[in-house]
Design a protein that fits this description.
The protein is α+β, with helices and mostly antiparallel strands. It has a single domain, classed as Immunoglobulin-like. About 15% of the residues lie in helices and about 25% in strands. The termini are far apart.
């Protein structure tokens, strides 16, 4: 999504403010172009998150697909941490989401856009990690 110089200046001003909570955008009255797949969207002074609530995966499972982009189109600093915060705020602390890293032959990487796929509970096998307490005792 290419932005005008004026829009980039406005984004720079927004980014100087303290990060606020994501607020839902009214798609019927918003100024942005709404893709046919978008079912809802959110924004704060850092990011725009556009969501498809019924993304069909190749295994037949319906997932939620969320596209995250900074207002100034730059990369997201501390990317993993920020995506985790966005996931928690919009979908809940206990939701499981993944980022998809495709085969090189399927790669499309022409913008600083990040995608989260929020999966129904139990769909994605997750590693079992035993939490242990490390002590200084011999």
């Amino acid at each position: 999504m290419s932005r005008t110089k004026e829009a980039l200046r406005a984004a720079k001003r927004l980014l100087k403010k303290k990060k606020g909570k994501l607020k839902q955008i009214d798609l019927a009255t918003c100024e942005m172009d709404v893709p046919h797949w978008m079912t809802r969207a959110y924004k704060n002074n850092r990011y725009v998150v556009t969501i498809c609530d019924n993304a069909l995966m190749t295994n037949g499972v319906i997932a939620v697909r969320a596209m995250v982009q900074r207002h100034d189109d730059r990369p997201i600093p501390r990317h993993w941490h920020e995506m985790q915060l966005i996931k928690n705020e919009l979908f809940g602390d206990e939701a499981t989401a993944i980022e998809y890293y495709p085969a090189a032959s399927e790669l499309i990487d022409n913008a600083n856009v990040y995608w989260l796929w929020v999966l129904p509970a139990g769909v994605l096998p997750t590693p079992w990690i035993k939490k242990t307490v490390i002590s200084n005792e011999p």
